[in-house]
Amino acid sequence: MLNYTQERSKHGWMLRLYRAHFFAYIVFLLLIFYKLVILHDNLHARYIDMNWLDNIIAIGSVMLSSFWIFWLPRRGRLPALWILDIILTFIIFADLVYYRYFGDFITVPVLLQAGQVGELGDSIRSLIHAPDLRLFADLLLGLILALFLGIRWLRRRRRDHNHYSPYSSDSSYRGKDRRLRVVIRRFTAGVVIFILGFVMTMGPIRQYTKTWAAGLFEGGWWNISLYNVTGLLGFHYYDAYRYTKEHLGGKPELSAEARQEIEQWFAAAKSRRVVQNETFGAYKDSNIIVVQAEAFMNFMIGKEIGGQEITPNFNRLMKESLYYSNFYHQTGQGRTSDADFSSHSSLHPLPTGSVFVRFPGHEYDVLPSILKDNGYETGAFHAYESSFWNRLNMYKAMKYDHFYNKQDYKMDEAIGWSLGDKSFFRQSLELMSKEQQPFYSFLITLSSHHPYTLPADVQELDTEGFQGTLFGDYLQSVHYVDAALGELVEGMKQQGIWDNTILVFYGDHDNSLQDKEPYEKFLGKSLSALDMSQIMNQVPLLIHLPDGQHAGIDEEPAGQLDMAPSLLHLLGISTESDYMMGNNLFSGQERFVVLRSVAFTDGKLYYIPSPDSRFDNGSCYDLGSRTLTDVEKCRIPYEEANKRLSISDQIITGDLIRQLRAAK
Ligand code: GP9
Ligand code: MN
Q1: Which superkingdom is the protein from (predicted)?
Q2: Is the dihedral of CA 69, 70, 72, 73 positive or negative?
Q3: Domains in the chain: ranges and CATH
Q4: How far apart, in Å, are the Cα atoms of 493 and each of 340, 429, 499?
Q5: Is the CB of 384 under 6 A from ligand 1?
Q6: Model's pTM, two decimal places?
Q7: Ligand 1: residue whose CA is nearest its atom 7
């Protein structure tokens, strides 16, 4: 039996531990809150500073992730808090690194393609900065403390080993009663924390969605805008919910009105796209080689550094080709795969994840499949792992006859992730020479991939003041890709296919280098928000026609969605029954180009959306004067842009092309 002093000291110890747990929980909340603030301070999207409501959301969302800690037995709570701290720290850290490269947060679909993260190797290392270590300081302290407490606990256990057990003679009635009280207390503590966390998170969010963030959860808001309302953890909760709903909910049947609205939109698009003019069928049965060049942007076309052209071969080829100087990439999170998808399907990529990964089995009207039906032999060429971006499955679904990947190439020129583009082009031409004509060949380059480090012996550009910077390495790598392009053209001539092949060359997306300063230094002028938006979204498009005809610069806006319908037009293959959204570059019609962020241009106006996605907080520019104009001028095209993105999202996620065709 315990005497009074023993009993008191036992309960005093328990009380201390209880208080210590409560104290540890508060410390945990503050630590994670601090880490969320560090993340926020590192974002480029920090147009909006965290106000006190955002702070409440942040703390509330941490409580929502941790209320269950109180349901654990006392002994488990501190270790569980520590493990949760590790998990949340890694989420914040992973988001931070991912954001630095992609300008976005990790979503469930991105996680499903996480195998690819390892491949980013060198890129990831260059995206981690020394101050990030702050995120891990408490974990290290926690580890030291855990070791210290563990040793103390072991010692005490050894000392108490022979002591009499205090409960062995306790009445079973008192023991049960006490246990029940403990269970009730624990349960209540967890519930109270959950309710508090829920109110702190959802209260302010509801307030936001009733005012400036109206429609937040209905529309396909951009992730950064979602984050600006919900905070990081809130964003992840919502993303998980959205993914589950989308995948467990089954495909919604299209209502008659929705079907009619979509069909009407496509009918109007068709009347703009399908045109019988002198270019229609002018290059019937030509071979086509399309090169999608990694991170190949438009701002350095025609430019020099220290008297040396960055892209001399492109510049030369431009003189006998059609060059689109106002051409936009329309990619989202799916990067290279989005450029590939949009160019071949003439649909927009999704707001989250890659269509290749998320919906490879749905029906699309894609260029390789249409060409195959028209007697072409079709091949995709990419000297990398075939599973990356789920290409193997997607290319089968797109009905490519061949997918030449890493295992089909001899690794005789090691650059960056894989084979150098010069060797890649040379070997691809050899592979093509075995195919029957006409052929369609889609080549994806890789040498100019972030972080743009080239072996010293292939560096031919003197990048002057940019030596040793990522920007300098970028220029160096595009200069190499340009040289490879020159060799490709020579190779085509030698192979005798130059005169019966349409050569298309375009960049897939930006280079992820978002700091304005090196661009200003390189271009020798200060850059406005409009300049920067165009620089980061424009990639070059070059179309070389077999007889060098129609050469010149087309300054009207164009985008990746326009490739498939335009090439089919040149070949004289009608797109009348296809569900395509892009422009036909040869129709002579005015063009409207919508980017995944809902930025858009019609050649006269250029709209940059605000991070909060409110139309009137966006910037509407007059491209004539390149100055801001009344935002109302952008309202009608803004609504059209949103409509297009929404129809495209519905088509892709709901497999609507199949449904619409079945209903005909
Ligand atoms: C890898 C290549 C790179 O196969 O397509 O993809 P990215 O990282 O640019 O999306
Ligand atoms: Mn890419």
Answers
A1: Bacteria
A2: positive
A3: 4-248 (no CATH), 257-588 (3.40.720.10)
A4: 26, 11, 8
A5: yes
A6: 0.80
A7: 336
